[in-house]
């Protein structure tokens, strides 16, 4: 899941930055000395007089045979990871084709293949025709045998949201389930609306 | 915050012919809205969680640029060239700035704040404008706060005596302000509260919001 991945990596990055900033400040404010706690031996940032990174520290492993291969390897790995992370933000997990027969183990043959776009459009126009709905955009995501639905619905004036959701489930989604036989079709629906002038009716 | 208000609308419109345009809905006859009894067992399934696409995109691009530049320069130096000037400058700065240097302290504070911000992004749901609805067994649904405010404002405007209404929907609750140009203030307030309670039921929210209703006379 993109959501879990993003949040995991953001948390990791945040934690690293937090610890980096915190430990630099602890050294800069001379806290180990003032509050009387010791940093691990070899800790470079325990007194305010210390520089951020001495030349000696920076080059201490330069003559070791393993140093450059390891540095280059880790950097290459991080670069690839960052590239993959960036690209996965742009990719849309849209279900292109759906396996309509669902169960491919039976001898019903390969079954029909339904273009995801077609089902999206049918559901979208059926949703837009409902009372209280002005526009609807439907996207199918996930596996081709078990897709799920994302709906963005723009409400009309005098729409009843509770009713709209109920009819989307019992009519639009139910029709798609029975006619296309593409699994449970779990759905996530977001309702919004456009501003309109108040009309006074009694 | 979502906010919807109306300016004073001419009273004549109250019985304007455009009432015919109104879609037939069950509460025209004044009967209270009966919520549909098919909500999810988990009461809507909690908050909607954002995928945090934009922060992730920015963070990944910055990390990509930083790693790629450093990698490129290191490989170039391995191949026999001189290190780029930015890398020599950086090494000089790092080995000359003391920890209590202002620049270092500012950088440390910025790193600390950015880290906290990223952690907050990672751990909080976001999508504060989406109010979770009760949904259906296989459906998770949410209504935007400004859409909810519009629904409630429309209900408020139907109350007799209300000339203009302003409805704010916050995560904590609903605040409605109305101007009544005729009728007893208390009576209008009672009717308005009832209308808004009905409107809130129409929203079908997973968590019932607090309702704060105030009615006043228009300022002369």
Automatic annotation (TrEMBL), chain A:
The chain crosses the membrane at residues 66-87. Keywords: Membrane, Transmembrane, Transmembrane helix. This is Alkaline shock response membrane anchor protein AmaP. It comes from Streptomyces tardus.
TrEMBL record, chain B:
Keywords: Membrane, Transmembrane, Transmembrane helix. Residues 1-43 are annotated as: Disordered. The chain crosses the membrane at residues 54-72, 103-124. It comes from the Bacteria. The keyword Protein biosynthesis does not apply. Pfam families: DUF6286. Residues 113-215 form the DUF6286 domain. This is DUF6286 domain-containing protein. It comes from Streptomyces tardus. The lineage of its organism: Bacteria, Bacillati, Actinomycetota, Actinomycetes, Kitasatosporales.
């Amino acid at each position: 899941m993109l959501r879990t991945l993003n949040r995991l990596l953001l948390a990791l990055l945040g934690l690293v930055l937090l610890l980096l900033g915190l430990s630099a400040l602890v050294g800069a404010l001379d806290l180990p000395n003032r509050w009387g706690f010791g940093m691990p031996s070899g800790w470079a940032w325990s007194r305010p007089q210390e520089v951020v990174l001495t030349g000696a520290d920076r080059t201490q492993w330069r003559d070791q045979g393993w140093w450059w291969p390891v540095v280059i390897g880790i950097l290459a790995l991080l670069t690839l990871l960052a590239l993959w992370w960036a690209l996965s933000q742009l990719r849309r997990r849209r279900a292109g084709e759906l396996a309509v027969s669902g169960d491919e183990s039976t001898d019903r043959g390969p079954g029909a293949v339904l273009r995801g776009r077609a089902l999206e459009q049918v559901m979208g126009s059926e949703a837009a025709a409902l009372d209280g709905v002005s526009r609807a955009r439907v996207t199918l995501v996930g596996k081709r045998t078990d897709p799920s639905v994302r709906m963005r619905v723009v409400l009309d004036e005098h729409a009843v949201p509770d009713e709209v959701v109920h009819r989307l489930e019992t009519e639009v989604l139910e029709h798609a389930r029975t006619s296309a036989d593409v699994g449970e079709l779990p759905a996530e629906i977001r309702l919004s609306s456009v501003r309109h002038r108040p009309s006074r009716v009694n | 915050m979502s906010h919807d208000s109306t300016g004073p609308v001419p009273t004549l419109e109250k019985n304007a012919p455009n009432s015919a345009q109104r879609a037939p809905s069950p509460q025209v006859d004044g009967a209270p809205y009966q919520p549909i009894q098919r909500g999810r067992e988990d009461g809507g399934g909690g908050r909607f969680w954002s995928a945090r696409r934009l922060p992730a995109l920015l963070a990944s691009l910055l990390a990509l640029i930083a790693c790629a530049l450093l990698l490129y320069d290191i490989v170039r130096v391995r191949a026999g060239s001189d290190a780029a000037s930015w890398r020599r400058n950086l090494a000089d700065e790092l080995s000359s700035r003391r920890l209590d240097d202002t620049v270092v302290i500012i950088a440390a504070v910025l790193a600390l704040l950015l880290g906290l911000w990223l952690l907050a992004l990672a751990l909080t749901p976001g999508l504060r404008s989406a109010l979770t609805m009760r949904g259906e067994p296989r459906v998770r649904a949410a209504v935007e706060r400004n859409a909810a405010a519009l629904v409630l404002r429309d209900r408020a405007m139907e109350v007799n005596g209300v000339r203009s209404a302003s409805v704010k929907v916050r995560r904590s609750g609903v605040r409605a302000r109305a101007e009544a140009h005729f009728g007893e203030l208390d009576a209008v307030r009672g009717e308005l509260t009832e209308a808004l309670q009905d409107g809130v039921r129409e929203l079908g929210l997973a968590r019932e919001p607090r309702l704060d209703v105030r009615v006043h006379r228009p300022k002369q």
